[in-house]
Amino acid sequence: MAEDERPIGTRSRTREILDTYGLSFKKSLGQNFLTEPAILNEIITTADLTTTDDVIEIGPGIGSLTEQLAQRAHEVLALEIDQRLIPILADTLAAYKNVTVINQDVLKSDLATLVRDHLDGKHQIKVVANLPYYITTPILLRLLDSDLDFTQIVVMMQREVAERLAADSGNKVYGSLTVAVQYRMQVDIAHIVPKTVFVPQPNVDSAIVSLTKRTDCTESANDFKAFSRLVKGSFAKRRKSLWNNLLALYGKDESTREHLTAALTAVDISPGKRAEQLSITDFVRLANAINL
Known about the structure:
This protein is α/β, with parallel strands linked by helices. Helix content is 39%, strand content 18%.
């Protein structure tokens, strides 16, 4: 391969771009650039991209993943918070007319408006990104809480967070984040990624995670906010029983105790259990029983 045809995601080309622009990494933005084409291909394979897909990318960096997305998808809308990277991306991605880069913070963006303004609305939407470790959870929850009609989310994240998202009830890492995500999404860890393929090298390994909308739910929360409040409160003090966490959440007066007892009895959940022993369906049924 001729030198000017090297993918952005090769280590040599990444180093060349960084040196050309004198770019230093911002720890505050969690910048770790992926420098292994095989891993980029793994992300693309997991997302199963075709020209029927429009893609939203969060944090394109210098464009290593963006380049691969542009070669396969119909359109790519990339959100980059670091103003320094905007002219670099204009250079590295100059050959791809189906890429739009916006200098915005995804946590402050109106995603529905961006999609309406920059995508044609005729293609299914997928989110594909290498997420900064320090804001992985806020970004995921932002995506799930948005009105964005996406068919799949494929993201690279810290391995520890990926394992929390995919955990089964009874697992020590199963928690409120697990329930919040799995209530809405099927979570699959597609590939474990060693820390050695990033520049600069992080302290931990990563994982490629695929999230797709669940189609197997037989029950849903009558009030999602009440459901979310119950889940967070139930895990507030993990070593305490569900009963003690419920009392701390809802109150300890006699009428509340009676109501909680009746709700637990109705859904056949022992008050002595701990939150991590409850399935997502248990939480849904309990939330609906408490908030009748």
